[in-house]
Amino acid sequence: MRRLIALLVALLIAAPAPAFAADSTLGVRLEDSSKLPALTLSVTLPADLLGGTTDEPTFRIAENGIEAKVISAQSATEAARKPVDVVLVLDTSGSMKGAPLADALVAARAFVNAMGPEDRTAIVTFAFEPKVRSGFSGDQTQLLAALDGIQATGETAVHDALIRAAGLAAKNAGRQTAIVLLSDGGDTVSVTSFENALGALKSSGAAVYAVTLRSKEWDPRALSSLASQTGGRAVTANDSTQLLSIYEALSEELRTQYLVTYESLRPNTKDLDVQVTASLDGQTAVGDLIAPNPLYAAAATGPVLKPVAPSLVARISVIVLTFLSITLFAWGVSLLLQHRSIGLDRLEFYDQTVGGTVEDAVSPGTPAALQAKMQDAVGYVAGRWGFTRMMHSMLERAGWPIRPAEYIYLHLSGVLAVGLVAMLVSRSLAVSLLLALVAVILPLLLLENRIEKRRAAFEEQLPEVLNLLAGSLRAGWGFLQAVGLVAEQMAQPASGEFARAQTEARLGLPVEQALDHMATRIGSADFSWTVSAIAIQREVGGNLAEVLDIVASTMRERSELKRHINSLTAEGRLSGTILIVLPFIELAAVLLVNPRYMKSMFTATFGWVLAIVGALMLVVGWFWLRRATKVEI
User: What's the topology of domain 27-295?
Assistant: First the structure.
């Protein structure tokens, strides 16, 4: 008994495994949907199900999980069947060297010889990149000659090869096309992604029959997914000696088509999930198909109303309303975040918060009157919510002779104008919003730059101003007269600021308080210390001229030290600017010269991770360089 069991086990191990035992799947394609609800499918049966029997298989169809009625199922005879165009795609990478490639070429030659006289075959090989050995042809001699001299070397570019095969198949409109792919490993060097390859195959309409040969690099998952989603199937060969039988069986399948017609349930879904089950002599095979619902296609091909292009006025109106909505939304958010000013604060800008002051100066009913109304409305809202005080302070520091309400009105008008022009030119809402955001920020940056330049210019004049005040005091002049002399003799911005302080003092404000207002308006720490020294000296007594000379001398020394430090840190600041700007210049240059080279940076997740990490490192480097080159004095 033991000997008998051992003999049976030995026979089972030694017996060759059928090539299709684990791959009994059907190739299913949608053939005709013009007679809705009747849908016709083209079904190819695996060779192990055909088995040389003369009986006809029986079919069952489930649509979206619900069984549907099979109207008819008939085999397409050799005379009646449609010719088949097949793209043979062979892996010639280094892992196929030796017996695998030799057996694959033998199987390919047998496949070419088995195809019918009306059928055509194309041959594509791939390693580092795909190569078309022969276009579609029915000349067997030419095709067999294209298989001569093929060598195995290089890596595996499966996706690129499928793109090339899909391009050949797409040129055969109206003919049934299939792609028979042989590969023994996963993709390693393709430029094309799996998703792009799948999209190209679906667009071509070709069914993919994937033959995967077991090896150390064997990875059948991607090819099995491609096959199932294109109406083909995947076959696994445990050894290269099985390739001949597999290719012979595939040629028989492609030449043996069944046209199965069933009554669609007409579900209200965008796609149809069709499952076909074929049974013959006690064996069963199943195939799946996901196809667009013909109901939606029929609706799309029905009477189509010609769209009426909107007029220029309508488009401009939509754009204006869009930007007004965005502006009002941003304004509302800012109102929620802005501290509400009290009535006493608004009294300072009474002329800008009460409507009608600008409008009264123009004739009613004119464009100028409309502009005045809008300007007054902007000033009223800005005054109620404290924006006027902020802009008043900034405009005074910048020395711009413009009212806060006027500036806010012009700023908003500029933002709207830039957004509208960008929308009309680019027709892109994202670009328009980006440029509108730039129009919001840029004037504020220019205003801040103007303030910094004016403050720097005032601080440059300050030692000379203090010397002039000290000299006037020694000559016996009063302090207010010395301030008036500075206003007459000095250039802007010192002359204007001291003239304003003199005017405030003549109107009854103490000189120390007028100078304190001036220090706040200028924003200069040096002048604030000077005002404090003047106030203390005028209160306790002493030689004010001597104090001013000492302060002026100290400021000159500090200014000299600042310039010395700026010269020493100039190289570091320039290096920081170059290091920050250079990556963006290089990115723009590469995108201009070779956009494909940078494609992975913006399409792959890892590329975005690198970009984000690089941006963060740039920000950290910028702050570090700024701190390293900034010396407080």
Answer: Rossmann fold (3.40.50)
